[in-house]
Amino acid sequence: MIDASAPRFGLPASLWVPIAAASVADIQTYVGAVSQSVTNQKNGQVNAVLVLPHPYSPTAEPNVPLWQSPLASEARKRLFPPKQVWVHVDFDNYRQAYLQMGMPAIPGGYFLDHVQNRKAIGLRGNSHPYLRLCPVSRLVNTSGGHSAGGEGIEKRFLAGTYAATLASSRIIYADPMDLTKMLDIPPGTQVLNGVRDTQRLFYP
After folding, report:
1. I want to staple 188 with a disulfide (CB 3.0 to 4.6 A). Which of 89, 92, 117, 193 is the partner?
2. For the chain, what is the domain count?
3. In this structure, is residue 173 part of a structural domain?
4. Cα 184 versus chain centre, distance
């Protein structure tokens, strides 16, 4: 099921990748079944969930350049893995929870990235507090999170139309910069040259 109220940036359907949700119930509706969870025993807040995504085949759009490129196999693993971990924006022990839920060990030099920036969600009043995690290299993490990078640009853009549009949605889908990060490609800073070059793979 797709959240039709959420922006999808003109991307083809095989690249509609959920990265943030308004609630655990929305994860279950739009992403997949929750098989494990970590709950705060003091207030009952769900801090982390292991998600088994609904069946989905990104190969349904062979005209999308990404699925015909040398990156196709790795892209399917990174964008549509058989298991995902989502965590609450305020939960700090997410790395421990990720490993305790049986996810693969994080390689040296890699970080668990909140694909949707935590500070940006906070500035939106925690409108979509559940965020998908994705391992990315140090270079990707540094580039994406730089004040002159995509996440810095996003934080400065919060007062605009995009933030207002998101207010009515239950899901946030990855934009081209998010997809670039998830493919473990540094998005770059200023003009985001990494996103510029990679998004050619996203649109037919």
Report:
1. 193
2. 1
3. yes
4. 12
Q: What is the pLDDT of residues 144-203, one digit of tens each?
A: 444 444 455 555 555 455 555 566 899 999 999 999 999 999 887 556 788 889 999 999
Is 35 inside any structural domain? yes
Give kind and range of the element (H or E) at residue 176.
helix 176-182
Residue 3 lies in a domain: no
Do 22 and 125 touch, CB atoms closer than 8 A? no
Residue 189 CA to its chain's centroid (Å)? 19
Report, in angstroms and rounded to the nearest whole number, the Rg of the chain calculated over CA atoms: 16
Is the CB of residue 8 less than 8 Å from the CB of residue 203?
Answer: no
CB 132 within 8 A of CB 18: yes
pLDDT tens figures, 52-109:
999 876 666 889 999 999 999 999 999 999 999 999 999 999 999 999 999 999 999 9
The terminus-to-terminus CA distance of the chain in angstroms comes to: 23
Tokens 């990494």, residue? Answer: 194
Structural domain for 191, as ranges: 13-201
